[in-house]
Amino acid sequence: MTKKTTIYDIAKRLNITAATVSRALNNNAKISVATRKLVLQTAKEMNYEQNKLALALKSGKSYNVGVIVPRIDSNFFASVIRGIEEELYPKGYHVIICQTHDQQNLEIENINSLLNAQVDGVLMSISNSEIENNDSFNKLIKKHVPLIFFDRKKSISGVSSVTIDDFKGAYEATKHLIDQGYKRIAHLSNDRSLQIFKNRYLGYKQAIIDNGLEFDESLVIETMSKVAEGRKTTKIFLDMDRRPDAIFSSSDFTALGAIEEIKAHGLKIPEDISVVGFSNEPFTKFMELSITSVDQSPIEMGRIAAQVFLEEVNNSKKVKSEKHIVLTPQLIVRKSSQRLTQLV
Amino acid sequence: MTKKTTIYDIAKRLNITAATVSRALNNNAKISVATRKLVLQTAKEMNYEQNKLALALKSGKSYNVGVIVPRIDSNFFASVIRGIEEELYPKGYHVIICQTHDQQNLEIENINSLLNAQVDGVLMSISNSEIENNDSFNKLIKKHVPLIFFDRKKSISGVSSVTIDDFKGAYEATKHLIDQGYKRIAHLSNDRSLQIFKNRYLGYKQAIIDNGLEFDESLVIETMSKVAEGRKTTKIFLDMDRRPDAIFSSSDFTALGAIEEIKAHGLKIPEDISVVGFSNEPFTKFMELSITSVDQSPIEMGRIAAQVFLEEVNNSKKVKSEKHIVLTPQLIVRKSSQRLTQLV
DNA sequence: CTGTTAGCGCATTCAT
DNA sequence: ATGAATGCGCTAACAG
């Protein structure tokens, strides 16, 4: 009972050959209806289950895909992964999840060990783009293992990506603040060597300029996506001679830190200062003072990334081409920025 | 360049045999220092990488373990998984994550497809225990695939588990409320066919009884772990003739719903009514009115579950034995229940 | 110390 | 329509 039954076992039982069993099971080649039926039936009787490992060795496909993210315990990435799984499971694929914790070496290690595990593809959100990590990517490309970036991408020839229009998200968030009457809008930025943060910065800047406000570079400070960092940086803003009357943060976590700091200073939100975050993490909705944020439709992003992977893995014959899908973000207005609500 | 190099390639280059190469690479048997060095060096030159699939087929080990959880986009489960990965990655294992979304059929399907993928073990938190799903579990046991439960377990002979002492966590949470002077403490319960929720209920009940308060079954209502459900159920409490002055919730999400509903009724927290949750989800700390909750040390739980798996997978020879590890939860007191703070 | 042989489980030529 | 033979890449048993 402990030994698994193979196609040989069922072949022996039926006095036929393993090849025939294989054919019957895969209802591939021409085979007599009678034997197919017989094989299928006894296969069920003997609790036969295909050994995917053997199949993988034979076919070179493991039906595993690797997903690399900075971290898993953030709602955004967890939701993207959920989208990927929803799309891939029905097709028989499994998902192997790796975290980089924003460490460059782990990113490389993860790629290597996924390659080692013979994954059929890699979907990833890069951690940082300062150090050149192209060797790992080239390895994937050389081996024809489809690589798809989502959210945090890098521009590499032949590599597809699914992102959101961060520029637009930031532009609209900033425009929303301007529409609410705020004049001096600061920006809590983040590592701008990453395109997403760079684009959020640019969208913010453009909205400021397009609407006739003064763009002041000193109102842009780069920090890390942590609550405590958000507090620290916000303190700098609040201590300015001409302090800002609104903050557009590129992260919900720093937005939260900003709110804490503002309250600690005895200022009111959104009357004195307004705050807008980015990502629509669940807590932004849960807070008593709910936080306006930009939704990135992470589940959809995951599903689409998975679809792109499926296309690439199936179109092996055709000429390679890269595909860049850009989703439209959605501003979710909540209490932290709704100055005019009562007036309407 | 696209073809991967195998041990045969490097054997040919060196005019030795593949077996020798294999030995050198695994620095196993006795082998001359010279050839080993030579093999290692040319292996590096030729960019050799072991094909784990072949190894898996040969050894019967895939170095993949399956992790099954109700959902991934909850901080608790994401953190447990993180703990599992931290422990398993250094040992060369990969983690395949499956979600059940609390659906029984998905639980069964996931086990089957993990089995199909030849995983070396399954770590899981069961979704519900109403329907008997023992066939799937028996399959695992028959095939000697280690199965370890974490958090949400089922009592099955030979299966180890890592849980927290939910009874104690609930007892202390309730005791804390009693110590703060609350007299009429309600309990927002959850599906008690799951041991964790049953034990939280029992801990609550025992604390009430031990401290000379009246245990009133009508103050216990079972609901689902969602914010909206928490609100609905809390409304029932608030509409009672003798309404409770405190609520111990078996979930942070229902606790949050309770808080919303209480505020909507114009009551003050914790002065009028106090609220305590369970799980220490991040938002409980983030809220302006931070929520007292019970921490379950999820990362530690994941690490230990992984360790138990490693023990089982390595001690194949010895007699099987089950191991039950129970972690001690920790009450984190925050604003939602600290009535006496100002007095101290 | 190293070569030979064989097999893990399967799918796929080439025969028949 | 089916059988025989082969190889995917690796390790282990048995010789030498």
TrEMBL record, chains A, B:
Domain HTH lacI-type residues, every copy: 5-59
One Pfam family here: Peripla_BP_1
Record-level Gene Ontology MF annotations: DNA binding
InterPro entries (alphabetical): HTH_LacI, Lambda_DNA-bd_dom_sf, Peripla_BP/Lac1_sug-bd_dom, Peripla_BP_I
Entry keyword set: DNA-binding, Transcription, Transcription regulation
PANTHER family: HTH-TYPE TRANSCRIPTIONAL REGULATOR GALS, LACI-RELATED TRANSCRIPTIONAL REPRESSOR
Name used for this protein in its record: LacI family DNA-binding transcriptional regulator
Native source species: Thalassobellus suaedae
Taxonomic placement: Bacteria, Pseudomonadati, Bacteroidota, Flavobacteriia, Flavobacteriales
